Amino acid sequence: MRFLASLPLAVLALTFAAPALKAQAAPPQVVAQTPPMGWNSWNYFAGKVDDKGVRAAADQLVATGMKDAGYIYVNIDDTWEGQRDASGVLQTNSKFPNMKALADYVHSKGLKIGIYSSPGPKTCANFEGSLGHEEQDAKLYADWGIDYLKYDLCSFIPAVMQKQAPNDKAAQMRLMITAYEKMGKALKATGRPIVFSLCQYGWDSVWEWAPALGGNLWRTTGDIEPRWNSMYTILSQQEGLQSYAGPGHWNDPDMLEVGNGRMTLAENRTHFSMWAMLAAPLLAGNDLPNMKPEIKAILTNRDVIAIDQDKLGKQASRVYSEGEVDVWERHLSGGAVAIAVLNAGSDRYSTHPFHLNLAKLGLYGTQHGKNLWTGKEVDLTGNMPIEIPSHDILMVLIPGHK
Ligand code: GLA
User: Fold this and answer.
1) Is 223 a catalytic residue?
2) 44 CB within 6 A, ligand 1
3) pLDDT, tens only, 316-375
4) Residue of the nearest CA to atom 4 in ligand 1?
5) Closest approach atom of ligand 1 to CA 222
6) Residue 40 C-alpha to ligand 1 middle, in angstroms?
7) Which one of 103, 205, 328, 367 is most buried, by most CB atoms within 10 A?
8) pLDDT per residue as tens digits for the range 192-236
9) What is the pTM assigned to this prediction?
10) Which atom of ligand 1 is closest in space to residue 219's alpha carbon?
């Protein structure tokens, strides 16, 4: 009886709701369902990036097969900004004569383009920031066809946080969060799907609040440098953050230094493997036109990339460490598991090999898998001895039993 009485009301509600639903704009396209992959100008070119260099990077992504392997975003970092005109519209500087034309060029290659700004008055390299022009800048990016924004705190710290709340850290953090929220809303209001990358070095447990304001990735630490110690320190700091990563929202341990600085091949391999284990964004930061074949081989290892891009989006955790050897495990879709055994110390010879304890990984009996760096099949057994060179890694995929 009660049901019947309420029926006409329900029908009425539906009749009126239908046109309203129809009028609603299509939901914005979902971005970053797997960790973003591409290239960023900062780690190698820093302030020297220009239009020509970005076009060359786009060309190389295609020519080297990196695009086919998944590297899609061509991201211009700091130092592209010029001055604002009388109406506040930001201009590019002389290194970037025509951003729209550059975006069109990058898009014509089947790639996407990213840009950089700061919520403060200035960027980290002291170029023009977005403070007070957030909506205007977001609209400008959308008009140019930008697909990705890295938003870097920098001068917002002294210019707003410390100035407006000199002795109140919590109030400073609230100002910071509000600034990111503002740009998140401004990007959304453009209606263009734009990946929103927060860069504020992990302050105030960013992983807890960034997804709610539209953040697709957030830096968890300070800047990476092309040295083993920097990479390994950042890696160790990712421990415990695994529950915050997932489709659409990722921890960002910073861009890749593969091929930069003086890292050995083993170190480059370990860096790349571990970023894949962490479901980290894979943004190459090297000089693509002059990339050595062995570096290309690392960056285009499809098996390792597939771990990074696994659709389940579960970040690895460090299951145990013994001395200087770390054992990480990542659960993948279809019940598969990736295991990484990393030697942060000196060479492990046959005299004192590392003994991998499978039971600690929840694996019992012989596990048949694939060594992702040799491409060879391997059997992992109970307490098996493993020799690992210094700073190198054993990475094995054990397929799922569906
Ligand atoms: C900060 C960021 C870097 C880079 C520079 C640019 O240091 O953390 O990744 O964007 O600014 O100035």
Assistant:
1) yes
2) no
3) 999 999 999 999 999 999 999 999 999 999 999 999 999 999 999 999 999 999 999 999
4) 42
5) 8
6) 11
7) 328
8) 999 999 999 999 999 999 999 999 999 999 999 999 999 999 999
9) 0.93
10) 8
User: What is the number of the ligand 1 atom nearest to the C-alpha of 125?
Assistant: 12
User: What sign results for the dihedral spanned by CA atoms 195, 196, 201, 202?
Assistant: negative
How many other CB atoms are there within 10 angstroms of residue 274's CB atom?
24
Separation between Cα atoms, residue 35 and residue 251, nearest integer Å: 9
Residue 223 CB–ligand 1 contact under 6 Å: yes
134 token code pair: 């957030």
Q: From atom 3 of ligand 1, which residue's Cα is the shortest distance away? A: 223
3-state DSSP of the chain: CHHHHHHHHHHHHHHHHHHHHHHCCCCCCCCCCCCCEEEECHHHHHHHCCHHHHHHHHHHHHHCCHHHHCCCEEECCCCCEEEECCCCCEEECCCCCCHHHHHHHHHHCCCEEEEEECCCCECCCCCECCCCCHHHHHHHHHHHCCCEEEEECCCHHHHHHHHHCCCCHHHHHHHHHHHHHHHHHHHHHCCCCCEEEEECCCHHHHHHHCHHHCCCEEECCCCCCCCHHHHHHHHHHCCCCHHHCECCEEEECCCCCCCCCCCCHHHHHHHHHHHHHCCCCEEECCCHHHCCHHHHHHHCCHHHHHHHCCCCCCCCEEEEEECCEEEEEEECHHHCEEEEEEECCCCCCCCCCEECCHHHHCCCCCEEEEECCCCCEEEECCCCEECCCCCCEEEEEECCCC
